[in-house]
Amino acid sequence: MELILAALCLLTGLAILLLCLLFFITVLRQRPIPAVEIAQADASAQKFLGQAALRDWNASALTDLACRWEGAKTGLTRGEYQGRVMSVSQPDSAWLAFYLTLKADQGLMRLRSAAQEMRIEFRGGIARIDALGSWRENDGHLFDAKQQYIGRYKRFQGWRWTMGNRSLTPHYGAIEMSGRVIAEMNDALNWGGGLFAAGDAQRPLIRLLAPNLSSVEEQWLIALVGVELFFNARRARASLAAGTPIQN
Fold it and tell me: Is there a single domain that holds both residue 145 and residue 235?
């Protein structure tokens, strides 16, 4: 009996310790990203993006983006994600490279193609893209740099089954700009290999591309790829605590 009581006390103590650790991690995640950490992340991003091998950007790039990114992710209280968004037609090559620093629901990303680079800040349910505008999560509205409404990309927000960071129930959502649907975006941009990697590699991230897109519309499509990368990373971190299914 004494051994049983001792074992129960030990298990109770371990459970309390685990709960305290989870609480501590949660509190740290909610704190703003300090300026010194942002500077460190920018330096790491510059180094990674400068070395990332990318295909030369061309007219077919947008519809050849796969629902798959490859790279690395590290960090406990603050996640660091670096990787490349792969090609459907040439699965071993990539069109885009990114570096994301993520803490709770806030993040900083640098996203690069062979032709351009952009910086995206995620905070308070809004993605702000330097010199381009912003996207609002709750209603999907797009705004230009002067905060004028220009379109909409509403992501699916119901329950979805996931496995780690991988969404098993992908959805395509319409992207509206200039009074028309310019494309559809898949909201299951997944990381790495595994059981479902072949499907991700063959599934286009963007489909039904409208003809005669403006340069601004093309930049918005690239920026929204960055938004999907952010949600993939956030989904992965949320699943550590919430399990599956999760919503976003």
Answer: yes
The verdict on 79 and 132 lying in the same domain is yes
The reply to whether 236 and 207 lie within a common domain is yes
Q: Give all strands (DSSP E) within 137-194, no chain letters.
A: 141-144, 149-153, 159-160, 162-163, 166-167, 172-177, 180-186, 190-191
Question: What is the C-alpha separation between 166 and 12, in angstroms, rounded?
Answer: 33
- Predicted TM-score (pTM) of this structure: 0.82
pLDDT digits (tens, 9 = 90+) for 75-90: 766 789 999 999 999 9
Interatomic CA distance for residues 157 and 102, integer angstroms: 20
For residue 13, give its domain range: 1-30
What amino acid occupies position 99? Answer: Y
Peptide bond into 32 cis (omega under 30): no
CB 204 within 8 A of CB 63: yes
Give the C-alpha distances (Å, rounded to integers) separating 83 from 41, 110, 145, 178: 14, 11, 28, 32
What confidence tens digit (pLDDT) does each residue in 5-23 have?
666 667 776 767 766 555 5
Same domain, 56 and 174: yes
- Residue 247: Cβ within 10 Å count: 12
Closest CA to 70 of 48, 93, 44, 104: 93
24 and 42 fall within a common domain: no
My answer on whether 183 and 146 are in the same domain is yes
